[in-house]
C-alpha cells in the first residue's frame, strides 16, 4: 500500500521513522514543505516530502498526524476521498492538556468521519506517545495499539500496519470504539505529564 502522513511534527516523524525502518516508503505532506526539507531528507531516500494535497493524491492510506482542529479541516476540504483509508491519529485535546473537548456520545474520529466524504476512517496511533511510535520495542513485550473502524477491510490494513512497526495490534471493532480510545490517550497523557512518570512507558495486554 502507498502511505502518506500529513504532518511532520513529533507523531508524523515518529511514524515515518518506524515505517521506513520496516521497509515501507512514506510520503510526508505539509503546507510548507521547505520548512521540513532537511528533516525529511535526513530520513533517507525512501521518504518523500510534498505539499499536503499532493500527499493525499499519492496515498492509498493517509495518516492524519496533525492537531485535531487541523484534521477536521483537512477531512472537510476534499469533495471526495475516493475510498482512501484515512487513519485518525489525533485526540480532541482541551487547552493545557486538561482533558478532551468532546466525548461520551461521540469522538474526534467520528467527527472526522462525518466530514471526510468517501473516506474509510480508522482510529489508531493515538493512545501512546511519539517515542513509542518511533520505537515500540520493550523488553517485557509489545505495547498495545487499539484500532477501530467501521470498514472491516480498512481496519485490517491498519492492524497489519501497526503489527509491522512492532505493536500488539488490537481489533476494537467499529469506529464508535474511538469514544473509549481517546480517553485512554488522556490516561497516558495524565501519567506522563501530570503525574510526572515521563514518556517512556506504554500500555500492554497480558494473558494467562
From TrEMBL:
Superkingdom, natural source: Bacteria
Oxidoreductase listed as a keyword: yes
A single GO molecular function term of this UniProt record: oxidoreductase activity
Domain Pyrroline-5-carboxylate reductase catalytic N-terminal: 2-92
Keyword check for Oxidoreductase: yes
Entries under SUPFAM superfamilies matching the protein: NAD(P)-binding Rossmann-fold domains
Record keywords: Oxidoreductase
InterPro entries, sorted: NAD(P)-bd_dom_sf, P5C_Rdtase_cat_N, STEAP_metalloreductase
Record's protein name: NAD(P)-binding domain-containing protein
Lineage: Bacteria, Pseudomonadati, Pseudomonadota, Betaproteobacteria, Burkholderiales
